[in-house]
Amino acid sequence: MNEPVPGTFRDPGRPIAARIADLLGRLTVEEKLGLLHQYQAAVPRLGIGAFRTGTEALHGPAWLGPATVFPQAIGLASTWDPDLVRSVGAATGDEVVAFHRKDPAAAGLNVWAPVVNPLRDPRWGRNEEGYSEDPWLTGVMGTAYARGLRGDHPTLKTAPTLKHFLAYNNESDRCVTSSNLPPRVLHEYELKAFRPAIAAGAAVSLMPSYNLVNGRPATLSPLINDVVRSWTDEDLLVVSDAHAPANLTGSQAYYADPAEACAAAVRAGLDSFTQDDDRPGDTLRHLRTALDRGLLTEADVDTAARHALAIRFRLGEFDPGTPYDDITEAVVNRPEHQALARRAAAQSIVLLKNDGILPLGEPSRVAVIGPLADTLMEDWYSGTLPYAVTAHAGLAERCVTEFHEGVDRVALHAPGGLVTAGQDFGGAPLAVGAAPDPRLTWFDLFDWGGGAYALRAVANGRYVTAGDDGVLVNDQPGPNGWEVRQTFRLDERPRGTVVLRHISTGHHVGLVDGTLRLTGDPDAAAVLTMELVESGAQAAAELAAGADVAIVVAGDHPLVNGRETEDRTGLGLPPAQEALLRAVHAANPATVLVISSGYPFAVTWAEDNVPAILWSSHGGQEYGHALAGVLFGDEDPGGRLTQTWYRSARELPDLFDYDIIATDSTYLYYRGTPLYPFGHGLSYTRFTYSDLSLSHTTAGPGDVLTVRVTVANTGERPGSEVVQLYTHQRRSRVKQPLRQLRGFERVRLAPGESRVVTMAVDIEDLAFWDVTRGRFVVEEAPHKVQVGRSARDIRLSARFTVAGERVPARDPYARPLDAADNDEYDGIVLCDAARAAGDAVRGTDAGGWIAFREVGFLDGAASCALTVASSEGGVLTLRLGDPLFGTVVGAVSVAPSMDRYDLVTVGCPLAGAAGTHDLYVVFENAGVTVSRLEFTPVAAVPVAPETAPAREAAHGVTGGAR
Predict the structure, then answer these.
(1) Is the distance from CB of 172 to CB of 121 less than 8 angstroms?
(2) In whole angstroms, what is the distance from residue 200 CA to residue 269 CA?
(3) Same domain (yes/no): 494, 618
(4) CBM6 domain: which residues (predicted)?
(5) Claim to verify: residue 784 and residue 850 sit in the same structural domain
(6) Domain coverage including residue 393
(7) What is the helix (H) or strand (E) element at residue 335, kind and residue range?
(8) Per-residue confidence at 898, pLDDT binned at 50, 70, 90?
(9) Fewest beta carbons within 10 Å, which of 5, 71, 528, 843?
(10) Contact 220/268 with Cβ under 8 angstroms?
(11) Rounded distance, CA 948 to CA 945, Å?
């Protein structure tokens, strides 16, 4: 690279804005376009090197080789310790810098973490990547982790990127499904999780998600420029998710022309295209075409380039030095980081149930059982484990242990003989025939739930995979990679036989010339008889029967049945693991269930029968030490759940329904009895709460309510308590949460020790989004403060009144009624009113409706102008009071449109629309879209001369002009 060129942009004493402007002024249009891709081109003539966005760092550096592996993000949040989470972020940031110093091309300083999508539904395949179902707690933890990543100096250590904006909580068809997001859910739930880290300056970048929101690709969301950028005075870098730009003309078919799509993305706020890996040519050509065709201006390019450069300036790239220049490879997995990993793992462990069996004394013999008992799992965004302390290894350091994996060992009989595997470490194609040693025909069968199984050959301890040529080979360490090729379904056939179906390809396993290989012809599948060589449950039960205590470690494989690209369909433990647990408990009632997973399980049988249950996420390299410390009582189990554990998936709404308010979802609105509530977690000691006091009995916007409570350890052991503060608005114009987390504090108390815990609630944070006026409102209403150990274990409560404002009846004459701002609905979806901006409502069922509560028509409305479209045509009816039996005040026919964006204004005369009523717009036919309704009061109707619309209305003619 050429020597650096002197200039204002290299002067650290000048403001960053001036430095950026200077550098932009030196760049050609082509050079500025080159900044708009993940792989930013070097500018040798100015001595500027290449730059790459996107280093994964969700819970430690990923994909860069051995590095400290901390607990998964859901586990970090379960510590309820923002300072600890920030420390983990700082350690991760240090290690990213070290990798960058070693190889700048492989490890960039723009990190794609944290993930702040609220965990709305526990079936989401990427549940382990988020922090909580509560948006405020998500914001707290995301901000803490991002602060650690960015460092404490004005110069950024790394540049954290929030993922994934917006309403992204399903993997099934994630690139083509649209998240239905009403305004209240948008403002009170989704945006609330993203704002804190950006507003605090902790995160400096944003990644839009793959999905659509209200019919529009999130990559093109107008909220990026209109809302998110308003949260900060700094330049925010917006990077696309991998290959998402191509979806605009591909799977989403939102634009037919790549240049048009790229231009729309830049105008919507996208600054960096993550497309085609390190081959930016096509993207830059599309952008250049967009410029040439006038779809983009050079000012648009300058804006995006400025955002890209701003991050590089803030990282100190153009300074003589940075505060992080002494960071070397020595920080990677250093002893301090190992200790931090152990501390984080220990504090993340949640004690779900305990009948007194824990903490363990000094048992002479412990049976350690289960498919996760002597292994540690890496998820897709994990780093490579530098070492692994498994549950078995950690316990073996403390007591005498015996181990059994608890999985079935089987042999597969095929036409012509038994399926055999190669005994060399590199494996061999699976073949059918005779084997000199029966162990060559044995396979361990792992059940990972959802009908997904993996086979491990006893011959060499390696897993069976389908190679690129379709041949089955036993040469893998386990399920792995982006495209997991080591899992199969067992499709039943008559007389107890099965065929294997490869999950990744959907192809069956056939037999060709004595070798097992994939076939696209289901009729050519090899019919197999599965012989049980050893029952894992029976062998484990026999082992457990002779032990003082049995520890069963169960859970998920992070790459199977719930991962990126794959949601779960249920919440149960894998059937074989459930059977294992029951068999072990029958043999030894002193059984402890330890769950290691990235998501909740519906362990209802265990809750009813097993004396103790613990949960943690996959805990990283120090998991075994942390678990042993908690089981033996060195550590009080300090973790608390950050999402609800349900008894069954039947208690959940449709996975694709994002309206948590309408569906009574998450702890905020859920009315049932959960298996374990939000905030739940037990201790080895007892805590009592007393002397709850409030600083105000009446407070208004601008006030801060101070809550004080005394917490005492009345047990015989030291312990950690997470004191949780919730509020509930007891009267409102709208449906309010049943309880909502407002604060928490972790306290550690010795036996007999007490402490006054003080927490503050900003009254303005009690606001809800008022759809009648399009803003947040603090409503005049009585409220309740609730303090306790979880959302359902409330120990004390007190009441106070908020002196806010009263929400008046809707004034239909002051502003149009936007259809998306309805109060309630049925049989509709939210959709895009235009490609660039605006939401509308489309009827999906005949008889669907939207409701506007308390519309003040005063002396009467003479007419309504509806902005509508319909591909097939249809009828809309306006009713008062009820969508089926209410008074009809108007009806309008909607003519077929050229396309769904061909919105026209249709006039509708009204009769009887006077006073204050609930207004229903009823979709008599599916397929009609409504954007807004504009009402004209009776007094505003001119008498003469008669207008064309009035003449048409008088003669029953409906229609409209564009």
Answers:
(1) no
(2) 21
(3) no
(4) 815-936
(5) no
(6) 339-404+541-651
(7) helix 335-348
(8) confident
(9) 5
(10) yes
(11) 10
